[in-house]
Structure prediction request, 462 residues.
Amino acid sequence: MMKMSSKNSLESTVLQPILKVGKGYTILALFLLSVVLLGVFAFLTQLSQGLAATAMRDKIFWGIYIVNFVFFIGISHAGTLISAILRVTNAGWRTPITRMAEMITVVAIMVGATQILFDQGRPDRIFNLFLYGRYQSPLVWDLLSISTYLVGSCMYLYLPLIPDLALCRDRLAGQASRFKLAIYRVLAVGWTGAPEQKKLLERAISVMAIIIIPIAISVHTVVSWVFSMTLRPGWNSTLFGPYFVIGAIFSGIASIIIVMAIFRKIFHLEQFLEEKHFLKLGTLLAVTNLAYIYFTLAEYLTMGYKLAGEDKELLTMLFAGSQAPAFWAFLVLGLFVPLFMVVNKKTRNIPGLVVASALVNVGMWIKRFVIVVPTLQVPLLPFDVGIYRPTWVEWSLTAGSFAGFALLFMLFARIFPIMSIWEVREELETEKEKETEKVIEVPAQPQPKWTEVFPAKREEAR
Prediction:
């Protein structure tokens, strides 16, 4: 059970990062910013030299930019599906984690969308997809679905923020900077906490929670169709839709656990982010892990049983060829080791779950690489196998993307409450009411025998 905390303690703990942070925060932010600047330099180099600065050529025309794109869009499902589903099912324990999950969604979509610009080489041509795109193309579907998903996710993040923005507007007057107070005043849209406002807000959040679930599922399904609508070996599969969705939820849950652990440690949120929250997410992680193992088995078993066309060459490359280290690293480090750590009592704790989640995300990034690159290496004409070794430009943009993801999170925590104060407070009050309403059960007294109640009958019975 969540520890009872006073209203002032909750507010002061969650609002403290907005007012003041330590030197460690500043050092980490500067380090991440330097990595982002390295990525900017690599991007400018690519703009001046074109895609010749990368390892992508006519054979391998997609590389780690697309790998990063699929990965970030995948972890974006963390906030939407986890937060929305738990909100719809009215799971009270979700309240301390929903905002972090929803923030993962928005930031991951933003960073994932930039990977398309990197992959194009000419970012200005992105508008051609809107102006001259063929609506029969899965690429256009992908663009439209991600745009819709970003707008919906921003709305879903913003609506539960409104009461906390009003709280910051009122509590931090004279303490926070004028810039922050101006943001709170504008975004709070005149919130006073009146019953009518609460009713409208709760209705809007409920509607968005229901709407965002099918949107999130459709987005990663459409991402999978970019691959499975082709006839290439390994991609030509009807399994890719649900396979990608389960993989997205799998890596998304792992991302939530990592983010929760980081903010719990840095901002001292131990009394609100308890071990029970990690254990519940660990259970969800184990379930999706088993589901992903099933889909992985179904994918490669059907390919290996038929060995149609170029599938044999692809499987040989994955199981015993040049891509075997990546493939087996994904299976062992990304699936089986995390599953063992989650179900094992000795490692089923916060440190163990964080390590397992980190392995899951590393493994799922490798899995996206295994999906994208090896298929393109298999020649469809009598040519040599394609070779792809990412250049420093691609690695720098990848590092900059991950650093930008973390930096945006840190900036968010400096401006907005990283935890939904009003929802946590309501859950605490609900728990307190339940405890006060508990009825002390009086042990049942043993019933006397009928012979003791009716002595005359006892004599007759003798």
